[in-house]
Amino acid sequence: MNNMSPLGLLAAAEAEEEVSGIQQFADTIDEAFGEATGFFVNLIFGTQVTIPLGNPFPEDSVLWDGSLVVLWAIVAAIGFTIYFKAVQFRGFKVALEVVRGKWSRKDDPGEVNHFQALTAAVSGTVGLGNIAGVAAAVSLGGPGATFWMILAGLFGMCTKFVECTLGVRYREIDPVTGEVHGGPFKYLPVAFRRLGRIPVAIITGVFAISVMLFGIIGGGMFQANSAFSGVQDAVATVVGNEDTFLHSEVGSLVFGIIFAGLVALVIIGGIKSIGRVTGALVPAMAIVYVVSCLIVIIANIGNIGPAFSAIIVGAFSPEGVAGGVIGVIIIGVQRAAFSNEAGIGSAPIAHSAVKTRRPVSEGFVAALEPFIDTVVICTMTALVIIFAWEPTWNEAVEAHSAAPIGLTFGAFDEFFSGFSVILAIAVFLFAFSTLITWSYYGIQAWRHLFGQSQTSDTIFRVIVLVFIVIGCLVSFGNIIDFADSALFLCIFINVIGLVVLAPVVKKEMEQYFADRKAGRLMDDPEYIEGPEDMVTVSKSQVQDTAGV
């Protein structure tokens, strides 16, 4: 028998109606977003390439059978590594020297020092890609996806080296405010200048749209969705069940609004404020997460051999993965690119603000990002997950299919009961810092398309905040698929520009190594000419000259 008063029954009915209304709203948004995702994914990844191996391999053997844009990212990264003679490894010591300011001068042009530029960019890469992204990779491709993530990270170091060197070389510094404007929007017009103004405008416009989309979806919705899933898991662990306010649609909406409100307090600043905030947050959250991973790894040191064995074996002989080995490679490369953003063109925007007279110096620093992000931290995350779930792998993956980040949270709870609460705090900080960094990247693309004004900037920031809220209401699968598509569209366009301008970067690199050896790094470097200095001579001019 229900003893609730008539007013209580009415209130309950109204609450039920309100909840169902929010549920209906969330379902409608999720369905609409899913339809848009399907179209966009097919548009970007729909072009497939098959490369047969030929003799002496079996007739059906292929070197590649997958998306063109993913293949392009892989080939470019390997090609850069060969062309620059593995500079990401040869220049590792140099990168550490530059980060600690060994070759810096107080009057170097720019806004932030090398360390601040690195942390600002790392805040956009070291984040939920290392937690939710790795979990998504191993849930889709098994432990073997980790191997291909590591390999993609090592090659991606060289891609980062190239794009961030160009970001500094072609930056523009406002003579009045001192504000720096750099990144792909400055060097892509140089790379494609021979095509003419209209093609350049179209190419850079499409690139700006893709950066903006990834900033809103991958840098906003993905972070909010994963942060919310992490907090949900932590709350469920504390109370012992999933019947909590945060597990309702109203809870999703409230969390999204609060999270968006906190982000709004920060994104009103520019790169200087981001540098200060991330400079404080990134080391703290990186230490918390890395130390936590190390504790688990050390505690399970006896299982390190079998874990790496599972990674290697799974990389070349996957079971139950669509596409076999090629499928696992694609998964690993996609998740590595999502995590470290090598080639996307985002990092050069942050790195271009660095104080330096030598563009290539920041290229060395930027090469550290994929190493820190993918090779070290992603591998640690994968090991923790494998340690926890290897005996019951399929069951664990199925249980967390809706939100793969639960694999990581559950893995830590296997070793430290209730640790998911601490991890949830770290995840929240990762998501928060990534969001404020990507809001900066996104607004640069927005300004390229619509110009810079207070009203225009406010419109973009409101859009970001709205999609943060929506990110807490829609499914993880739709978000990551859309974000991947926007990310690889960026890579496809940006890397073409990097290939064209690679000779300029090589000259900068060779000059730097020569000056370092000769002890001239504190001197002003000699200017190196690039395509922007070449004068195009028409046929008529050649004929006129010949007739003189």
Automatic annotation (TrEMBL):
Keyword Glycosyltransferase: no
Subcellular location: Cell membrane
Predominant subcellular localization, coarse grouping: membrane
Residue spans crossing the bilayer: 62-84, 115-139, 145-162, 200-222, 250-268, 280-301, 307-331, 364-389, 415-438, 459-480, 486-505
Keywords (A to Z) from UniProt: Cell membrane, Membrane, Symport, Transmembrane, Transmembrane helix, Transport
Membrane topology, record value: Multi-pass membrane protein
InterPro entries: Na/Ala_symport
Highest rank taxon of the organism: Bacteria
Cited Gene3D superfamilies: Amino acid/polyamine transporter I
Pfam families the record matches: Na_Ala_symp
Family in the record: Belongs to the alanine or glycine:cation symporter (AGCS) (TC 2.A.25) family.
Protein name (Swiss-Prot/TrEMBL): Alanine/glycine:cation symporter family protein
